[in-house]
From TrEMBL:
A single MF term (Gene Ontology): ferrochelatase activity
InterPro entries noted in UniProt: Ferrochelatase (IPR001015), Ferrochelatase_AS (IPR019772), Ferrochelatase_C (IPR033644), Ferrochelatase_N (IPR033659)
Protein's name in the database: Ferrochelatase
NCBIfam families cross-referenced by the UniProt entry: hemH
Biological role stated in the UniProt entry: Catalyzes the ferrous insertion into protoporphyrin IX.
């Protein structure tokens, strides 16, 4: 997670190479977009809007890059048709809102390329600078090795991720919620690792405007200068917003009511994990934010007279490194053995149903819990289009508007953005050999066998 903006572009370049290699023009177009409009870049650029007073620019960039992981969904606001915009104009203008998420493979054939995109992101596999040339070959290798296990999971939930459909529905619901507040907005979805990529969302964003605005937008977009002049506001996190907390508390209260003895149920929050190094070495605030989020939800439940026991654990670890503990699977076994009989699983850090909820929690963890002595199992659904949640997102958009500011020029390393096929092939060839040799070392083989497949 410590990658700077320059290295982040590496993963975007892949999107270009992998999906668009047959169209040079399109590739160039995407390349220019990717430099600015990966979701992480947007967060990075946001520092001009949200930075705290004592942080250096580098610290702010790093913090914001990390925050990208904390937002399962991010929102950016763009006033369209505004070149020299002043804050007072913004609410009157039509808005573009960009919802950011990670994306998921829609078919089983998408699984390996999706995994490649994921592992080619230097924020996911963090290699020392000297070994960065291994990023793509390693991503290729790990994605091929991981794909069979991932495919099993996606096959179990119907052959693909529902994430795109749900996020599209959320975008539609948000558009309507904004309309109910008399704000006309186009809401776009931009995914980090699968379609519609953030770059595509931005492309759509400019194309969907009309007349001279299109020409102005497109021309300036191609020159990269336009983006730095767009007033943008990024909502970095909303886990602490009362609307979100209330909507989670509502869901929990409702599911608790389905148990015969609701007061005896343990509320089991399961959050997506991240490698420990993200938190301890790179200073990722994810763990603190998760803990605060759960504290706030439990406070809200207490205010409603619900004082159940609760616990937090982390799920979905991949690969041979230490992830945030305690691990969901281990805690389930422990509490089952300690005699807990009723458990309500609450996916936290997820706002949509996807493989981690539908397969990992509903199938694997439920099975494990029942095997470990838990008799009554329940699961809180992900928020999806929950109206309180969507209305709160709409409020967050409205509140963010006054802080929209023009982005500063990109400081990203342009070297990565230039796509050189020969250099790419040479890197892939030697990198693959090295990555393969690395994987053959006994320690790595053992660790991967236990954790990846
Ligand atoms: C809070 C959200 C997420 C964090 C943090 C996160 C970190 C993370 N994930 C992997 C590896 C995989 N992630 C996969 C899918 C996936 N992950 C998230 C969310 C977070 N990931 C989503 C929304 C999805 C898509 C789900 C879908 O329905 O498609 C996968 C593929 C699925 C599988 O095989 O388990 C992998 C692999 C790492 C290494 C990581 C580290 C920071
Ligand atoms: Fe993940």
């Amino acid at each position: 997670m410590e990658a700077a903006a320059a290295s982040l572009s590496g993963s975007n370049i892949f999107h270009r190479n992998y999906r668009f290699s047959r169209s040079i023009n399109r590739r160039r177009y995407i390349a220019s977009g990717s430099r600015y409009f990966s979701n992480s870049d947007l967060n990075t650029q946001n520092h001009s809007v949200f930075k705290g007073p004592n942080l250096s620019n580098v610290q702010i960039q790093k913090r914001n890059l990390r925050l990208q992981m904390n937002c399962a969904l991010g929102v950016c606001t763009f006033p369209e048709n505004v070149m020299e915009s002043h804050h007072s104009h913004i609410v009157e203008e039509k808005l573009g809102v960009l919802l950011l998420n990670l994306g998921g493979p829609e078919t089983l054939n998408d699984v390996q390329p999706f995994l490649y995109n994921l592992f080619a992101d230097p924020d996911i596999i963090r290699l020392p600078r000297l070994l960065r040339f291994l990023q793509r070959p390693l991503a290729k290798l790990i994605s091929v090795l991981r794909a069979p296990k991932s495919k099993e999971g996606y096959a179990a939930i119907g052959g693909g991720s529902p994430l795109r459909k749900i996020t599209d529905e959320q975008a539609d619901a948000l558009r309507m919620a904004l309309e109910a507040k008399n704000i006309r907005a186009n809401v776009y979805v931009g995914m980090r690792y699968w379609f519609p990529f953030t770059e595509e969302a931005i492309e759509q964003f400019s194309i969907s405007t009309t007349g001279s605005s299109i020409r102005v937008l497109q021309r300036i977009f191609k020159e990269d200068a336009y983006l730095s002049r767009l007033p943008v506001s990024v909502i970095l996190s909303w886990y602490q917003r009362q609307g979100y907390i209330n909507s989670m508390a509502d869901l929990i209260e409702k599911e608790l009511g389905k148990f015969a003895k609701p007061e005896e149920v343990m509320i089991f929050f399961s959050a997506h994990g991240v490698p420990v190094s993200y938190v301890e070495e790179a200073g990722d605030p994810y763990k603190d934010q998760m803990e605060e989020c759960i504290y706030l939800i439990m406070q809200e439940l207490k205010a409603r007279g619900i004082g159940n026991d609760h616990t937090l654990a982390y799920q979905s670890r991949v690969g041979p490194v230490q992830w945030l503990k305690p691990y969901t699977d281990e805690v389930l076994v422990e509490i089952g053995q300690k005699g807990v009989k009723s458990l309500l699983a609450v996916p936290i850090s997820f706002v949509s149903e996807h493989i981690e909820t539908l397969e990992e929690i509903d199938m694997e963890y439920k099975h494990l819990a029942l095997e470990s002595g838990i008799k009554n199992w329940g699961r809180v659904p992900a928020l999806g289009c929950n109206s309180l949640f969507i209305t709160d997102l709409a409020d967050a958009v409205v509140e963010a508007l006054p802080s929209a500011k023009a982005l500063s020029a990109s400081t990203e390393n342009d070297e990565e953005a230039e796509y050189d096929p020969l250099r790419y092939l040479v890197k892939m060839f030697f990198g693959s050999i090295l990555a393969f040799l690395l994987l053959l070392t006994p320690k790595v083989v053992l660790a991967f066998r236990n954790s990846l497949f």
